[in-house]
Amino acid sequence: MVNSTGGVASACWSRSLVSDRQEGAPARMRTAEFDYELPPGRVAQEPAPERTAARMLVLDRAGGPLRHTRVRDLPGFLRAGDLLVLNDTRVIPARVRGRKAETGGRVELLMVKEVAPRVWEALCRASRPPRVGSQLRFAGDRLTGRVVGHREDGRVLVAWDGAEPVTEILEQVGEVPLPPYIKRPGSPNRGDGADAAQRRHDRERYQTVYAREPGAVAAPTAGLHFTRELLAALQARGVEHVMLTLHVGPGTFKPVTTEDIAAHCMEAERFGISPATAERINATRAGGGRVVAVGTTVVRALEAAADDYGRIRPGHGETELFICPPYRFRAVDVMLTNFHLPRSTPLVMVCAFAGRAPVMAAYREALREGYRFYSYGDCMLIL
Known about the structure:
Blueprint: E1 12-13, H1 17-20, E2 55-59, E3 67-70, E4 83-87, E5 89-91, E6 95-100, E7 106-116, E8 119-126, E9 135-138, E10 143-151, E11 155-160, H2 166-173, H3 193-205, E12 213-216, H4 228-236, E13 240-246, E14 269-273, H5 275-286, E15 291-294, H6 296-305, E16 315-319, E17 334-338, H7 345-354, H8 356-368, E18 379-382
Parallel strand pairs: 1-16, 2-18, 4-13, 4-15, 5-12, 15-17
Antiparallel strand pairs: 2-3, 6-7, 6-9, 7-8, 8-11, 9-10, 10-11, 13-14, 14-16, 17-18
Helix pairs in contact: 7-8
């Protein structure tokens, strides 16, 4: 869908777009085909000491052996005329912990998105879900509001008091919403010693160096490996970069539970592509350069915005696009991505891009070679 000005329409892209982009009749694939065993100790709890020191497994779709390298070696695998596409979303400190004003019962919210002025949709954890009309208080009444509605999956709608922007208050009192598989000791409310230092460290490292558009509740993790120096080295090689924005939502951690992989429903995510970014991407492909997507979030945004000829249409909207095999990619030539959860939609997307068998073989190789997995872990370059 495109609006009258040629941009991406504001309405959600239908999940039927998946089958529209498949070659021939869609094959039925079982979700179990995207499962694998990962020892708990292989889930990275901390990032690499230096961003570009993370390991990078190189998978060439044209064949040949897997190569074991580092992120700092990336310029050697790209060539002049290629274009790097980055997601500049900024993770907001979206988790707040407080109490119900009436009962004193504890409540924890993960702020997902603003759905109306000063009204936010949030994931809620409490011994009993707060009823409509309940007053909620956080951070010593620094942030107060009332529940005005309920949604599925334990979500609530909260209308916040005051006039100060909620995102500015969250920057002062909220916590970085680390993925559930990254464990942190101690109480998040103590604010002392190692706990406070760890939280400061996570605020810096669970964020790309080029993040600028607040709105994500999870980081675009492939981008965590980049530094200004690496981007400069790529530019010196003739590899430029552009930005788009896709605000990563909590659905990124939602496992696929349907037996048939194509029956899974994606949660919509907001994205935007500027006219300048679209123009650069289209010019790169027209000139024979490769579009290098840094992360599955970039892939999802580009494929949602591409027309049947692979041209990117600028605009803002939401996408429910679920990319699963078989799928014909129109906008992406190279992908850099972290190692993903079993039965997860990012893993399914990567398998659609490089083939299920080669990807699962690469995962087995990564396990044998001691790679670190998930958000703070190592990555894979798919050529």
